[in-house]
UniProtKB/TrEMBL annotation:
SUPFAM superfamilies: P-loop containing nucleoside triphosphate hydrolases (SSF52540). This is Amino acid ABC transporter ATP-binding protein. InterPro entries: AAA+_ATPase (IPR003593), ABC_ATPase_HisP-typ (IPR030679), ABC_transporter-like_ATP-bd (IPR003439), ABC_transporter-like_CS (IPR017871), MetN_ABC_transporter-like (IPR050086), P-loop_NTPase (IPR027417). SMART domains: AAA. Belongs to the ABC transporter superfamily. PANTHER family: AMINO ACID IMPORT ATP-BINDING PROTEIN, PHOSPHONATES IMPORT ATP-BINDING PROTEIN PHNC. It comes from the Bacteria. Pfam families: ABC_tran. One of its GO terms (molecular function) is ATP binding.
Length: 254
């Protein structure tokens, strides 16, 4: 089966520093990839590159079999037309550590905004989708509330519903529970697990090993911009002992 997304030899530097160093990754439809690794190892930069928030320096990316974000012109890699990049980005949902909800809009308006302004959906349609997605994350009864009156876990679930309302093919989660009090982490992971059960393709940066074990098809350990270890959770948690750097990291986060 054709992968949903394929990265080949992707490099992204900031000045002299290679934040993403020659990364290749292929994700099939429905696959759940968990990325772990120390702070500064390039996890966020990798997600931002996949979502075309950061232009890559070299390498290629393909989405559903087509070149994505960049096109080869002669020997040069040049950014694709903004219109094509926007079209690609509507197919990739991203959820950040900070929820970034629009504070002046109700929960329902937050979730309707993308479909109305970006996809040109009618308000009636967008409202129906919004309520559906809020239902999926257990937030339907909060539709008329404003972000300021919600807990962090509730805000993050609204942020997930907002991303889902765009009906993405791929969801990227960048440490979605790191800003939350420990007692609110479970409700957010439960919402993400439900998406996993529904078959969503996703890449999740998290240090929650329980979640990785339970949900991941593939676990990747990233360090200094590269993948140091990659495998199924079973393989990963057994074999990691062979690599002292992976082991020492896992020991620290448990
Ligand atoms: P992680 O998410 O694994 O903590 P990041 O992808 O945020 O790592 O960062 C990887 C490296 O790239 C770090 O050394 C960081 O300082 C650097 N970096 C990230 N974003 C920028 C930026 N916008 N400008 C300069 N350096 C950056
Ligand atoms: Mg990060």
């Amino acid at each position: 089966m054709q992968p949903l997304i394929e990265l080949e030899n992707v490099v992204k530097s900031f000045g002299e520093h290679r934040a993403v160093d020659n990364v290749s990754l292929s994700i099939r439809k429905g696959e759940k990839v968990v990325i772990i690794g120390p702070s500064g190892s390039g996890k966020s930069t990798l997600l931002r590159t996949i979502n075309c928030l950061e232009p890559m320096d070299s390498g290629t990316m393909r989405f559903a079999g087509k070149p994505a974000g960049y096109v080869q012109r002669g020997s040069e890699l040049v950014p694709d037309k903004p219109r094509n990049i926007c079209a690609l980005r509507t197919r990739i949902g991203m959820v950040f550590q900070q929820f970034n909800l629009f504070p002046h809009m109700s929960v329902e308006q937050n979730v309707m905004e993308g479909p109305v302004t970006v996809l040109g959906e009618s308000k009636a349609n967008a409202r129906a989708t919004a309520m559906d997605m809020l239902g999926k994350v257990g937030m339907a009864e909060f539709a008329d509330r404003y972000p300021a009156s919600l807990s962090g876990g509730q805000k993050q679930r609204v942020a997930i519903a907002r991303a889902l309302a765009m009906k993405p093919d791929l969801m990227l989660f960048d440490e979605p529970t790191s800003a939350l009090d420990p007692e609110l982490v479970g409700e957010v992971f439960d919402a993400i697990k439900q998406l996993a059960v529904d078959g969503m393709t996703m890449v999740i940066v998290t240090h929650n090993m329980g979640f990785a074990r339970e949900v991941a098809d593939t676990v990747i350990f990233m360090e200094n911009g590269s993948f140091l270890a990659k495998g199924s959770p079973g393989d990963f948690f057994q074999r990691q002992c062979e690599d002292p750097r992976v082991q020492s990291f896992i020991d620290k986060i448990f």
